[in-house]
Design brief:
By secondary structure, this protein is of the alpha+beta class. The chain has two domains: about 55-85 and about 430-695, 3-Layer(aba) Sandwich (Rossmann fold); about 90-330, Prolyl oligopeptidase, N-terminal domain (Methylamine Dehydrogenase, Chain H, 7 Propeller). The chain contains 13 helices and 37 strands. The strands form eight sheets. The protein has an eight-stranded mixed sheet, with helices on both faces. A seven-stranded antiparallel sheet has the order 7-8-9-10-11-12-13, with no helix packed on it. The chain has a four-stranded antiparallel sheet with strand order 3-4-5-6. A hairpin with an 8-residue loop joins strand 4 and strand 5 (about 115-120). Helix 3 (about 75-85) packs across helix 13. The longest helix is centred in the last third of the chain and has 18 residues, at about 680-695. The two termini are about 15 Å apart. Keywords: Hydrolase, Protease, Serine protease. Belongs to the peptidase S9A family. InterPro entries: AB_hydrolase_fold, Pept_S9_AS, Pept_S9A_N, Peptidase_S9_cat, Peptidase_S9A, Serine_Peptidase_S9A. This is S9 family peptidase.
């Protein structure tokens, strides 16, 4: 049966063509769907009712169309949702983390959509709910809690929330004795506050009209927010900015960075009126991160040609680069991801031979040891600690077959204590599944790691369907972690695969560099190579592979759809960054200037323009056959604006030569992350899985 025959018929939404010409570097492009971009997007993100009625009517027609074509999967979607919900411990709770007289954690109530933040006495006792996410979300179509930071005296906390999906967060201050919020309320922030050492004020970032964190302010409790002190203003729109603190509560750190350059400014946490002091001025291509160490800062940096990073120390009395001293030298192929400093130890998370590991270093002796694991592919997370003078760190471990485990690890005795194992209420037998890692030869001979999960009874003769996931941007490595949701596909005979393509740091920093800017095509050819290798190994067939990716991974989906449509039975593109060239040419959009180091600046550079134009999915839609495609978006998404997939879908329908459906599902009450509630999010995942099952004939 053809893919087309598996879908019912409905009236395809007609997107009016209004040609708009743009000439750059002597090249003219015509965008017939440019009108779908809301000219008042800044206003609309804060108030979605301001959306142009003609655009809204088109988006609602798209939703009606996809609902009609997927109507016959309603029962399947309910079943999938029930399965995925059944694997979640509804009244789950994190292991509280100790800080002074208390331990802090998060929990959910049975049936609850949103997290609750609580604390208990340090050595155990009655639980006090500090923020109840379900209560705060009541009556709101969208609600997401941002940062939650308790003061050093444990009497107040500052917390943020977004009720539009646009990631303009409002900050509030809660009195932990009364449980009431104070009058202090600050809108249009980055979502987090950082207390000063007096516990009478906090630092925060404010977003400008273009959704960029351009200013750091300090607010004193009980004062008019209009009088908040401007601590620092970043005038370069190409840099992100955040503000944080240290566990010793001695420094406030202002971090400024793009994807390849960074800069820090410091001020004493006990002197919130002090002016921030520059550590090392930004230098193109040089990255560094600061971590506390008592009388020194630990500096994780790629300076001095350390592509995979090295660790330096700098005296707190004068941490300028001239005073940096090397502590852990650069080792090619060993990528140091992060460091955490303690009174007696320095802990680093690194990736070597494609797998993460934790290394503990005794500060006085320099002796190091590795916290080791045995599985072929796994995920490792370093949670650290609220406290500086402790010997205990916390980490999490999982694999594609092993549910997440949380450990406390004593760095002195090297004893690990299992605190929690992820519960799967409906049951999970790890022995029924196989996890493997393959190496797929790419077009230029590089070997692309592919992580696999399937049931032991899955036939490996090419007949099994496959969901192949990929991302491949910003240096983000996709972990081979436990995912209860994908079991709904695996238990139906799917092979679940993750292609660790170039553009991530899965094989070191060089793996990232080989998948960005003028080498971006490697990301796409790696993914196609992974699909073909899976077929060559008889794990699946091309007419059984459904490709999936989101955001920059959605761009990957658009690119491979253009380059090798015959390799896939279907494509799921979630919040897909598919209009790359137009977005990188629009300097007003929130992420465009900070993204130029990742993609190139086509405004200034003709070479960058040509590079992006050669792969931008929207610009390369052609008159050829495409597999069925599902695009998913959120109306108030500031990262990948809704009009990117809206335009892409319209152009696909106008140019392709087949009858396969192209569906566009847009959440009119959410942004980049989709629905905010944990169960609402499962419904969205169930929809995508139902589409995958449908296109391979298993719905």
């Amino acid at each position: 049966m053809s893919s087309t025959a598996r879908f019912s018929t409905a009236t395809v939404p007609g997107a009016e063509q209004r040609p708009h010409s743009d000439v750059r570097h002597g090249v003219e492009r015509v965008d017939e769907y440019a009108w779908l971009r809301a000219d008042n997007w800044q206003e609309m993100f804060k108030d979605p009712s301001k959306l142009d009625p003609a655009i809204r009517a088109h988006l609602e027609a798209e939703n009606a169309y996809q609902a009609a074509l997927m109507a016959d999967t309603a029962t399947l979607r309910e079943t999938l949702f029930g399965e995925m919900k059944g694997r979640i411990k509804e009244d789950d709770s994190s292991v509280p983390m100790k800080d002074g007289p208390f331990a802090y954690g998060t929990s959910y109530r049975t049936g609850g959509q949103h997290p609750r933040f609580f604390r208990v006495p340090r050595e155990g006792g009655a639980e006090t709910i500090l923020i109840d996410g379900d209560a705060e979300a009541e009556g709101k179509a969208y609600f997401r809690i941002g940062g939650v930071d308790h003061a050093g005296d444990h009497e107040r906390l500052v917390w943020g929330f977004d009720d539009k999906g646009s990631e303009f967060y409002t900050l509030k201050v809660r009195d932990l004795q009364t449980g009431e919020d104070l009058a202090d309320l600050i809108a249009d922030t980055g979502g987090e506050g950082q207390w000063d050492a007096t516990d009478n004020g906090f630092f925060y970032t404010r977003l400008d009209d273009n959704h960029r964190p351009s200013q750091v302010f300090h607010h004193r409790i009980g004062t008019d927010t209009a009088q908040d002190r401007l601590v620092y203003e970043e005038t370069d729109p190409g840099f992100f900015m955040s503000v944080g603190g240290t566990r010793l509560n001695d420094w406030i750190m202002i971090s400024i960075s793009d994807h390849e350059t960074s800069e820090y400014r410091l001020l004493p946490a006990a002197r919130p009126d002090a002016e921030p002091v520059l550590v090392k001025a930004r230098e193109a291509g040089i990255q560094y991160d600061l971590e506390e160490g008592g009388d020194v800062f630990f500096v994780l940096t790629n300076s001095g040609g350390a592509k995979d990073f090295r660790i330096m120390t700098a005296p707190v009395s004068d941490p300028r680069e001239a005073n940096w001293t090397e502590l852990v030298p650069h080792e090619p192929g060993r990528l140091i991801l992060s460091v955490i400093g303690f009174r007696d130890y320095l802990v680093r998370l690194e990736r070597k031979d494609g797998l993460p590991r934790i290394v503990v270093r005794h500060r006085a002796t320099g002796e190091e040891h590795v916290v080791a694991f045995e599985e072929e592919a796994y995920s490792l997370g370093l949670a650290g600690s609220y406290e500086y003078g402790t010997d205990i760190i916390r980490f999490s471990y999982s694999s594609m077959t092993t549910p997440a485990q949380v450990y406390d690890y004593d760095m002195r005795t090297r004893e690990r204590v299992l605190l929690k194992t992820q519960e799967v209420p409906s049951g999970h037998n790890s022995d029924a599944y196989v996890t493997r890692r393959l190496l797929a030869p790419s077009a230029d001979g590089e070997l692309v790691p592919v992580s696999l999960l399937y049931r032991k009874d899955t036939p490996l003769d090419g007949s099994a369907p496959c969901l192949l996931y990929g991302y491949g941007s910003y240096g983000i490595a996709i972990p081979a972690s436990f995912n209860t949701n994908c079991l709904s596909l695996v238990d139906r005979g799917f092979v679940y695969a993750i292609a660790h393509v170039r553009g991530g740091k899965d094989k070191g920093y060089g793996w990232y560099e080989d998948g960005k800017r003028d080498r971006k095509q490697n990301t796409f050819t790696d993914f196609i190579a992974a699909a073909r290798h899976l077929v060559a190994e008889k794990l699946t067939s091309h007419d059984r592979i459904v490709a999936q990716g989101g955001s920059a991974g959605g761009m990957l989906m658009g690119a491979v759809a253009n380059m090798a449509p015959e390799a896939f039975a279907g494509i799921i593109a979630e919040v897909p960054f598919v209009d790359v060239l137009n977005t990188m040419l629009d300097a007003t959009l929130p992420l465009t200037p900070p993204e130029w180091p990742e993609w190139g600046n086509p405004i200034e550079s003709a070479a960058d323009y040509r590079t992006i134009a050669a792969y931008s999915p929207y610009d390369n839609v052609s008159a050829q056959a495409y597999p069925p495609i599902l695009a998913v978006a959120g109306l108030t998404d500031p990262r990948v604006t809704y009009w990117e997939p809206a335009k892409w879908v319209a152009r696909l329908r106008a140019r392709k030569t087949d009858d396969n459906p192209v569906l566009f599902r847009i959440n009119m009450d959410a942004g980049h992350a989709g629905a905010s509630g944990r169960f609402s999010r499962l419904e969205e995942i169930a929809y995508g899985y139902a589409f995958a099952l449908k296109v391979v004939g298993k719905a």
